[in-house]
Amino acid sequence: MGYDIWNRRYTGSKYKLSEWIIDLIENNCVGNSFCDIFAGTGIISYSMLDKVNSLFINDFLFSNEIIYKAFFENAPYNMTKLENIKEQCNKENVKNLSDNYCSKWYGNRFFSYNDAKLIGYIRDNIETLKNEFNEKEICILIASLLYSADKVANTVGHYDAYIKGKNIEDKFIFDLINPYDTREKDIVITRYDANEYARDLKCDIVYIDPPYNSRQYSRFYHVLENIASWEKPMLYGEALKPAPQNMSEYCRSSAPIAFKKLIDALNCKYIVVSYNNTYKSKSSSSKNKITLEEIRSILENKGTVKVFDKSHRYFNAGKSDFTDHKEYIFIVKVGD
Ligand SMILES: C[S@@+](CC[C@H](N)C(=O)[O-])C[C@H]1O[C@@H](n2cnc3c(N)ncnc32)[C@H](O)[C@@H]1O
């Protein structure tokens, strides 16, 4: 059993579109190195793993970086030792555990009280293992905790709010992720702002899948960010969020400017861009920030552009008020 990289709920995940996207990349691009510069769940990196020698995986969230290291980092790990930790954690009697950071803030809100207590206990426990386990193993344990917690969270799939007025059941089970075999590959995992990273990156194919609207990922996934970084900050408001960090320019009205700077800075042979056509949504927070015309004209400065589209109903937490969704892929052959 165990978790695969796509076993999580993530706004904008390309899991269901990955076959289409990878086919387009294979049929229109040539190269041996691939960069997933807004990698999100990492599903597109995973899908490119057997197609290139070098993979650059980047996203500015802490939780995502840990998840990529856990699944992809080319480093040794001892699964038997990790299974033993998993079994010990699952044998704990939650009634004997003391209250902790997670149970205090998230108990009876984002998780049942007992589940929150177990999650906080396991996260504290992982900190104490840092002398006995290497970095890859610690990342596997934290990523496993993130996937296990996300599976039982009392939400509609993100952490902008928890579901109120519900008797939350105890459901948490600590299960491990299944890391991938990357021994033959060069894997580079980073946590940079994409625009800064683009200036130093040298790579054949760059895949760009930025946020499309004003919903900030660091605010949507703050609970996972908090469990990953484990600095135990004060939390604020109804949704118990920490002070803002990693706020993306792509979620603001300045998104077209940020996109142009990113494209201008890239030094690569092919650029592949994902975007969709959510411009007419009733909810202003789900309206796209860059027009398809702006994307095309910015890309045309860089080379020949091909555009592909596909009808798709994407995950938006069940509040769909817009039925004609289309996903777009722009492919640029740079310098052509
Ligand atoms: C649409 S999602 C990517 C989804 C991904 N392709 C997948 O299939 O799961 C956009 C991602 O960009 C990240 N992000 C937003 N602004 C960023 C920035 N300026 N630099 C790096 N990452 C950023 C977010 O954390 C989020 O994971």
Describe the structure.
- With 336 residues, the chain is of the alpha/beta class.
- The chain has a single domain (15-334), classed as 3-Layer(aba) Sandwich (Rossmann fold), CATH 3.40.50.150.
- 36% of the residues lie in helices and 13% in strands.
- It is built from twelve helices and seven strands.
- Strands 3-2-1-4-5-7-6 form a seven-stranded mixed beta sheet, with helices on both faces.
- Helix 6 packs antiparallel against helix 7.
- The termini are far apart.
- S-adenosylmethionine is lined by residues 10, 12-14, 38-41, 43-44, 59-61, 64, 193-194, 209-211, 217, 248, 250.
List the helices and strands and how they pair.
Layout: H1 18-28, E1 33-36, H2 43-48, E2 54-58, H3 62-72, H4 79-91, H5 101-106, H6 113-128, H7 135-152, E3 186-190, H8 194-200, E4 205-208, H9 217-220, H10 222-229, H11 255-265, E5 270-276, H12 292-300, E6 303-311, E7 326-334
Parallel strand pairs: 1-2, 1-4, 2-3, 4-5
Antiparallel strand pairs: 5-7, 6-7
The chain binds S-adenosylmethionine (SAM).
S-adenosylmethionine is lined by residues 10, 12-14, 38-41, 43-44, 59-61, 64, 193-194, 209-211, 217, 248, 250.
Task: Give a quick rundown of the structure.
The chain is 36% helix and 13% strand.
